[in-house]
UniProtKB/TrEMBL annotation, chains A, D:
It comes from the Bacteria. InterPro entries: LysW. It holds the Pfam family Zn_ribbon_LysW. This is Lysine biosynthesis protein LysW.
Length: 54, 270, 270, 54
């Protein structure tokens, strides 16, 4: 478990989580990035305009 | 520019016959038309990456569309392969056919300015992760003065990625979309995207299932077509949106592939 | 061409500071002068040859002068390194300095036509042998239309080997002699050959032994100078014979190396 | 020993001779190239304008 930096809800993190993985906070629905592991640190994921084919 | 101007994109795909394409470019030039030849080089990139021990990796977006993962080592390989191997071979071939070619990348004359995104979302082992060292980007601006001067002087520009970003660093961009962006910016008459298939296929495994025309949806991923062709259709859509009236996706494996495409072979994208 | 035109050759030698050279080129361009920058890339060639497992070999002529043995594998490495690594880095650097550069090889627009000799004599283990797969040659003709058009439009051409032979195949040529041939063909005002030494040294081990002027003998190998410098002097002689009035060999390792050379630093070759 | 293709004099070839080596014929003073080994075959060496610095 780790705290959401936006709403401070607890966010459950799987044991197999990896650095830079995106998880969604069930409380505020924001997308969060795992920016550190053991202990897990979450940050608001940057908004990215998705455009593939690069 | 009063002469008929065609932008041709060739692969990339080792199945595409670059000698035949060069011969056809020379034919068009000799009858007084202007051509800009845009090239990729996936075969040479793969060969050189293998020799240099740089792993080829793919980013898969959450929607399933995939793209090359251009980390710094792969960016070096991409530029080596395109500017240092594929392009000199095309320029020498065109020269041998009496078509005076000039090899360029998007760096030259600040031709292709790109935005590199600081991070992209990708699927890795079923998880969505942010990838921050991808040196791929999308074209943000095109300068045409260099190309226009060369075309006026009768040269055949041979253009490929990389583009240059706002920090004057090379950025990999998709060559089909380079071709589309140049067609729009130059106000060219026609865009021909050559590929290793007869055109856009309804069934990727059946070469007889070609659409003679294909209406690309106005937004989102084109449906029911595989990876490389989906990107060609995105490029075609960008050209159409920019006012290009003739956009064809056609077979690059046949003799006189450009002439055939201009005569109606392949798929007209609308 | 009415603007002052300077042809600058930079190494090659990893000791030479290409950032400083690019900054100085941009300075000249911004004060209204024209520059053609010719580059080699021996450091990058060595690095890439090592990575690709291509041995670097040297041909030693019976008179003791040595040159790169450019077999087909090494020709590929030379073109990869010059066109695919050194040149894009220089073009991007100049672009970042506000000098719109265009990277070219001798293939582009048929600029540098070379003769490849079918065989050269070389010393191997004390014996004279004929080497038939050397893809090195000498410049036979220069076309200036491409360069002149680019210079008129305000671009900075960035030029390197290879040249193209009569069969439209790439041929390695010496970059110092490329610079000399372009200076002559363009009718440029000045040739500056930058190197990893203060100028022409009387004693190669003593940087204080620089000749401020050096009269190169009208034929034959320049006496009492080591390999790389001997070739620069041959190039300088070719420029002088072609009517160039200002030929300098100067230090490429210092800040503002071109401005310093033009202000009198280094060796004036006569 | 091998015959000179120009003057048919015998030319002595060392045991360590290598392919494409240039030897001079003592009879006619022509430069000869060893174009095959065991048996040795000699051919008139091409005239080449020497120009180094390439
Ligand atoms: Zn939350
Ligand atoms: Zn004889």
């Amino acid at each position: 478990m780790s705290d959401c930096p936006q709403c401070t809800d607890e966010v459950s993190i799987s044991d197999s989580a990896r650095l830079n993985e995106i998880v969604e906070c069930a409380g505020c629905r924001n997308e969060l990035e795992i920016v550190a592991l053991s202990p897990t640190v979450l940050a608001l994921a940057p908004e990215i305009e998705e455009d593939w084919g690069e | 520019m009063t002469r008929l101007l065609t932008v041709v994109k060739c692969g990339g795909n080792p199945a595409v016959d670059s000698r035949g394409i060069c011969a056809d470019v020379a034919r068009l030039v000799h009858r007084g038309e202007s051509v800009v030849l845009v090239h990729g080089g996936s075969g040479e990139i793969a060969r050189l990456a293998g020799k240099l021990g740089v792993p080829q990796r793919t980013l898969v977006a959450p929607d399933g569309v995939s793209a090359r993962y251009t980390d710094p080592a792969m960016l070096e390989v991409v530029v080596l392969a395109l500017a240092g191997a594929v392009k000199p071979a095309i320029v020498a071939a065109l020269s041998g056919l009496g078509a005076p070619a000039v090899g360029l990348t998007g760096l030259d004359g600040g031709m292709l300015r790109a935005r590199r995104k600081p991070a992209v979302r990708a699927m890795v082992d079923g998880r969505t992760v942010l990838v921050r060292d991808n040196h791929g980007g999308q074209i943000a601006a095109v300068r045409t003065d260099l190309l226009e001067g060369l075309l006026r002087s009768g040269f055949v520009p041979v253009v490929s990625p990389p583009a240059i970003n706002e920090h004057d660093q090379p950025v990999n961009v998709n060559a089909d979309r380079v071709a589309a962006a140049l067609t729009v910016a130059l106000g060219a008459d026609r865009l021909v995207l050559l590929t290793g298939a007869p055109g856009v296929l309804a069934d990727a495994g059946d070469e007889t299932s070609m659409h003679s025309t294909y209406a690309v949806p106005p937004a989102g991923a084109p449906g029911s077509v595989a990876g490389g062709m989906a990107l060609k259709l995105v490029a075609a859509r960008e050209a159409l949106a920019g006012g290009v009236t003739s956009v064809r996706i056609a077979d690059g494996r046949v003799p006189e592939p450009i002439s055939r495409a201009l005569a109606g072979a392949g798929t007209t994208v609308t």
